[in-house]
Please model this.
Amino acid sequence: MGKYICPKCFAEQDIRDVEYKCTNTSRTHPCPRQKSGESFRPKDPKHPVCDACGQPVTVRVCPKCGFELPMNIDTADSYPIAIIGAKESGKSNYVAVLINELKNAVGRSFSCSLMACGDKTISRYRTDFYNPLYRNKTCVRGSDAGDVDPLIYNLIFQRKGGLFHKAVNDVISLTFYDTAGENLNSQDSMMTFNKYLAHTSGIILLLDPLQLPEVRTQLNGRIRLPDENTDVTEVLSRTIEVIHQQSHNSNMAKKIDIPIAIAFTKIDAVQSLIDPSSCLNNDSTHVKLGYFDKVDFGAENDEMQSLVDSWAGQELYQLVSTNFEHFGFFGLSALGSNPDINNMISKFRPFRVTDPFLWLLAQHNIIRTK
Ligand SMILES: Nc1nc2c(ncn2[C@@H]2O[C@H](COP(=O)(O)OP(=O)(O)OP(=O)(O)O)[C@@H](O)[C@H]2O)c(=O)[nH]1
Ligand SMILES: [Mg+2]
Ligand SMILES: [Zn+2]
Ligand SMILES: [Zn+2]
Model:
């Protein structure tokens, strides 16, 4: 207690050092601090008031970087999740669908609700992610390189009270980082942009099967293929290096204990290469059953591993298993069909999108596993 980690700059701070921003925009007596946007440390932290206008203040910001902190930064358990992947691997479309599924199907089945923290997250999700996909039926467009604010949510679980126990809600704070692929292009930029990697509770690494040479050969002429860019294992190798450097873990032989989900996107586009009886052709069972289903996970994990083996050999599996203590392989589709030249999606039918995420929650015992 008393300490927290800023979701933006990852500085560890004492809650007593937190600063406030005044939001007094009264028409008759607006606060002079309002213009400059300057933050300050109140004289009495128990009853914080603005030192310029005397009004009570509630908006807290990080004293290091000025980021507006979630209201419950000092009370909720925090689970930062990094979603990483090479350029055009499908990160932004994945985030768009994942958040919508968490709000709806997952919320219903796991008795939880997803609430955005702050207006920035609400407006960024709506304009950059939700509107293009769910209203205009077009892909989310390529992300700009550079520093972006994370999307921050609270996932609130309603727990039933036992006979003599009051029902209490568990709150976990989720932070999603959707980085532009360019930020992963060199070791250098990865160090600056992805300071957060070593601090996360889970990593979802998205890989585009359409970048595997073997898959490209087999699909050549059958579907519209994206341009060839980063090598599939390159992002993973760099991630491993960055985590070792950031966690000041000079012992490369020690496995990383952050769970990593290796998720292949765009499975709809490779369906002609997959056995018709494969579990990858259907949605998973977790949401329907209301718990993390080990049997379904086992089938997906095995199926995906053997596909990767046949498409790209043992290299990827070796890299993952020698460096990570906990890992799983997943195959999913955010869109359900290949978008056309104008980025329009003809048949929007996401599947297996929440699997990597639910697996991470299960790893931390936040949801039940059977
Ligand atoms: N067939 C198919 N194509 C997809 C799917 N998801 C994404 N794509 C395609 O992949 C392209 C890139 O997706 P994005 O979500 O923008 O990828 P990104 O990783 O965010 O890319 P950057 O922001 O540029 O790093 C999209 O424009 C789509 O054409 C999917 O589920 N199925
Ligand atoms: Mg993007
Ligand atoms: Zn900060
Ligand atoms: Zn004020």
Notes: Residues 22, 24, 31, 33, 50, 52-53, 55 surround zinc ion (ligand 4) (CB under 6 Å). The longest strand covers residues 169-178. The first helix runs from residue 33 to 36. Residues 1-74 form one domain.
